[in-house]
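User: Teach me something about this protein's shape.
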Amino acid sequence: MPNILLIETATAACSVGLIAGGSLTGLRESFDQRSHAEQITLFIDQVMQEAALTYQQLDAIAVSKGPGSYTGLRIGVSTAKGICYATDKPLISIGTLTAMAQGIASQKADLFAEGDLLCPMIDARRMEVYAAVFDLAGKKLHDTEAVVVDENTFAGLFAHHRVWFFGDGAHKCRIPFARQPNALFLDEVMPSAAFMVKPALEAFANKSFENVAYFEPFYLKDFVAAMPKVKGLR
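Assistant: First, the predicted structure itself:
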């Protein structure tokens, strides 16, 4: 069974895990977005030491590819690429929303009924979210997109399905969907390296590897730098 390092930094969560022997053997997480750069290498060293593995014993490095925070994604992908170059190991990329959907489908299986849909959401500022819709098997039914949430968003789905919303963008749906009985919510769900286990193992088995030199995160929207606020720099 492969040994795969898992890196998730698409949001405020800085999460690192390790698959060894086909299952998750280590996990470290912080939810302070400002700590990504200083925590990620420490977390990686900790999960590797716990498993008593060297970096050369890794079979692949898997990284969350987004969408999400521009800075967070750059940190995670740069770190993953650095390890790939140093060890000559393959790179696996996993959609952040895909991992969330598959992870919750497994973790909360007892909550769901046949026909339920899953809609992980990542906050994209203002009333916008990054969202996609999945069935309980993890199949993507609606592509990832930036969505401005109002009372008509997902109206076509509610007619035939219960839809579960989760992630740090889901709170934006509570007021618009307050009168919609088929809109259900899971609180305190953040992207996690633990959710990457299944898709990482599947990608490794299928040899679905990225070109390390050319791979870039899936930002979905272009990065726009804010106007500097320091006096004299405007």
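Now, about its shape. The CA atoms of residues 37 and 60 lie 21 Å apart. The first strand starts at residue 4 and ends at 8. If you'd like, I can walk through any region in more detail.
User: That's plenty for now, thanks!
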